[in-house]
């Protein structure tokens, strides 16, 4: 679930629309309700802001409407279920020092990404590149105090790396035992400063050992996502800093699969349909796709809350590389033979 603020003039009335977010009859004015204010996912406990920051709501110049978006999984299209879900916000009139906000990192919500079937730990990575933080963040940067990692059913691990001028800094958030049923918003033990020009790299691992076909990116619970909802202050215009493989690179990949691998690819089909037409996912085909995602140029969503992009050329960008990574982390686990009964 997500709560969106309706970014319109104070006197604008919003229609009481209830229905599919992507329906053709959705009133156009409700599309101004796009600024994320709060989010919840399965397993998340109550979330409390730090004493120095809070979520700004209301005021004389603010519109009085918010929109609640709920994602349902109802493949049988049953009509005998009644839902009473919602989000409770506790509000104070004592404004805190900083206005907080949420920024999305990771991969775009698109079927340009896919995980082959039969994989134990297939990686997908989304990028927040220096060019985007350079135009979207204030000179003194932002302070990240919370993070919510998010995938759907096949995600098993998620982490976000942080680098500055090619030098890797401590990891922003990491969960190597991720469960989609326990998506808490973590208050970071060490608040992280992100400066203009910093680079953020969010990687998700997926287990599809019980599947034969590809699992494709999308909104359905049976699709996949790779996101880090980053809670920070002070609030900025930058709300989405996510990537996807470039259109040209993906088109060339499907042409290769059709011409050289004899897959039933259609140049008029969606990426979803073309991914699902590739079968079986042999080790060679899997490695080709992995290499494609790792090496291909990307397109960027460097977006404001209204969906508009910051000025810049965001298509066909080479993936930045961390030139000086942190040393590999070694874990000293006790030998089970030495454990006392």
TrEMBL record:
Its cofactor is Cu(2+). GO terms for biological process: dopamine catabolic process; norepinephrine biosynthetic process; octopamine biosynthetic process. Signal peptide: none annotated. Keywords: Disulfide bond, Glycoprotein. The keyword Mitochondrion does not apply. PANTHER family: DOPAMINE BETA HYDROXYLASE RELATED (PTHR10157), DOPAMINE BETA-HYDROXYLASE (PTHR10157:SF29). This is Tyramine beta hydroxylase.
